[in-house]
Write a structure and sequence with these properties.
The chain is mostly helical. The chain is built from 14 helices and 6 strands. Strand 1 and strand 2 form a beta hairpin.
Length: about 325
């Protein structure tokens, strides 16, 4: 998932913004993956509820009976207070867990690919050989865009390497792979945002820097509609102290994945779809009656997946 990269996802990835002209911002809503050109993406529900593309695919080849049996096992885990009802909080917590596990699994898979000697750890040399094709020499150019990319990656690698042993284990690699999701990586995330967006080097991001350069609507002197929307977002939500700038934790909060918001959107959606008696809770019967919303089966196949990251829940 845009994983959340889900979602990332959720996800508001602006670390690579350089101030170039752009037609629209990269600020997706928490349910951005839920619709494809206005069409509801049912596969999104399957992957987020089940914990990834692989688990969703497994359900696609099951009979209806087996799909429902496995759903029953999952529902007992979602119902944490064992009252036979699944409320919004329980469903939200389950989806948050799924999103984080998907991100973790994605990092583990990337580590396997980049770990050239298969020892379960990543060296700075292995990373460079995989990403850039060679190991940059000491004293390499750091002023070109390529050089800046290498410098940023090396700085992030060193911060993620908590014990400073020159290797990233699986836990440290998670911080390196998705620093915006890890609180301990906040300083390096802020540093990189300022490096990319703080044009006047005053240690903060003003509204014009936040918006970047943009084209007016062709044939007019008017800014595109998103400029007003993003300006409102800046003033009313992101600039928490109202001083006209984003700085420090305001920057990190802007790009940090909001798993809870994404999960709340999904919980509301699933409850709305399956809650037959409209009591804002789900019973096992209600879920199984609408099982295709949650999992699908051999009878339901869909053509598009929301991301290439997967996770399978244990012991189904």
């Amino acid at each position: 998932m845009q994983t959340f990269q889900i979602i990332c996802c959720v996800l508001v990835g602006m670390l690579s913004l350089t101030g170039a002209r752009r037609e629209k911002p990269d600020n997706p809503s928490p349910d951005a993956d839920h619709y494809d050109d206005g069409t509801h993406n049912e596969e999104y529900d399957h992957e987020v509820f089940l914990g990834g593309e692989k688990a969703a695919k497994e359900f696609e080849v099951l009979t209806e009976e087996e799909s429902k049996r496995r759903l029953t096992v999952i529902l007992k885990k979602v119902d944490t207070n064992n009252d036979t009802f699944i409320d919004k909080e329980e469903l939200t917590n389950w989806v948050v867990g799924s999103l984080k596990k998907i991100d973790n699994y994605n990092a583990e898979e990337r580590l396997k690919v980049q770990d050239r000697n298969g020892d379960g750890k990543l060296t700075w040399e292995e990373y460079n050989l995989h990403v850039f094709g060679y190991m940059p020499a000491k004293g390499h150019d750091t002023k070109s865009e390529y050089g800046k990319d290498v410098k940023r990656a090396e700085r992030t690698f060193n911060v993620a390497d908590k014990n400073q042993d020159g290797f990233l284990d699986s836990e440290e690699y998670l911080s390196f792979n998705n620093p915006r999701a890890v609180k301990e990586m906040e300083p390096i995330v802020i540093e990189q945002l300022l490096d990319n967006m703080d044009w006047n080097h005053d240690g903060a991001v003003a509204l014009d820097e936040f918006l970047g350069d943009y084209f007016n609507v062709p044939g007019t002197n008017q800014a595109p509609a998103w400029v007003a929307e993003e300006s409102e977002l800046f003033r009313t939500q992101l600039d928490k102290n109202g001083d006209g700038y984003l700085r420090g934790s305001e920057l990190f909060d802007w790009v940090r994945p909001d798993y809870a918001a994404t999960a709340q959107f999904e919980a509301d959606h699933l409850i709305k779809q399956a809650d037959a008696n409209k009591d804002r809770m789900l019973t096992e019967e209600e879920v199984l009656n609408k099982y295709r919303i949650f999992a699908g089966s051999r009878a339901t196949h869909f053509g598009r997946h929301i991301r290439d990251k997967t996770f399978v829940h244990e012991e189904l």
